[in-house]
TrEMBL record:
This is Capsular biosynthesis protein. One of its GO terms (biological process) is polysaccharide biosynthetic process. Pfam families: Capsule_synth. InterPro entries: Capsule_polysaccharide_synth.
Amino acid sequence: MGMRKVRKFLFLQGPHGSFFKRLAQELQKEGHKTIRVNFNGGDWIDYPKGIAYKHSMKMWPEWLYNFTLHNEITDIVLYGDCRPLHRLAILRLKGSNIKINVFEEGYIRPHWITYELDGVNGYSQIQEQINKIIEDRRNDQPFVDSFIPIKYNMRYMMRYCIRYYLFKWLGVLFFPRYKNHRPVNSLYEAIMWIKRFFILKLKRRFVLKKARYLTQSNTKYYLFLMQLYTDYQIREHSPYTSMKHTLIETIYSFAKFAPTYTKLVIKNHPLDSGQKNYGKLIKNICNELGISGRIIYLDGGNLPALLEGSLAVVTVNSTAGLQAIHHKKPLKVLGTAIYNSEELVNNATLDEFWNNYKKPNQQAYTRFKNYLMRKNQINGSFYDPEGVNQLLQQIVKKLCN
């Protein structure tokens, strides 16, 4: 039997916390080589032994290309394929023999993360294959691997996020050319996260009570699922420049075309840091249109229950759209999404959708979900100790395959 090939993994930016560091350690135990590139102080605190990149963004593609040649890199590992550093890396190395391993939050949530080659979401190869996937009878076979429920560890995630942003701010003098991929000051974002944590605790009971009333009453409502204003899904894979733009268009359309007996429930993203006052924006729009009694803004609430009680759902391209399909709810997608098939979502325009929607094809959804679970969903979490342990057991095998 021949000797196994030693692979050389180059890690770029990862999720906040210990996941990339521990993944590198596990790969080393298997006899492989690992290198990490740090771009700021936050990267450094997560992975202190990495190589510091202090050059400009303009120099990055050629620096990376030469670095991979000199060090005989076989694999790139990164989290999120839309960050400018990662996008440039993928484009520069396209066509080479280097394997691009991309991690992202799960398409199926909770309890899962996404792992694909070359790209995820709008850059995933699934975009071109979805019709074949849902026509393939082999995908009727359910996913049967073991499954471990992973709890949502908000405290763990916030601790690592705040630490990352703090050290990114402290490390500015050491990484003067680094440009944040998020359109906000890191220190300010960390402060807002801390503030948000306590505000949500205070509001939790009120929000849950409000959401419970909606789901237990006979209120006829549509559900709009918000996304983070920093989300590249909005900036890269939709016609919108911001959530504000999306909200304005959706509320105006609802006011003009939706049946007058219906309401629109707008649910904020659970990880929103509170930097944008969406409540005030929505209130101002409603006052302008004279529909204050028909719009309900929820900064929290149980998503499955809200989905179950809704007439239909609107989103730009949130992965929560798959949960809407799971609950057999008509869905309108305003951007590019991996599940954007006429069998799963509505082709009607937004203006038409309020009065002319259809439910998703459940057989098509079952096939699509089974395909995802087998192909690119991995049981675990980036932001929970047990979830990380669960991921590492599976991912090392996939990376070395």
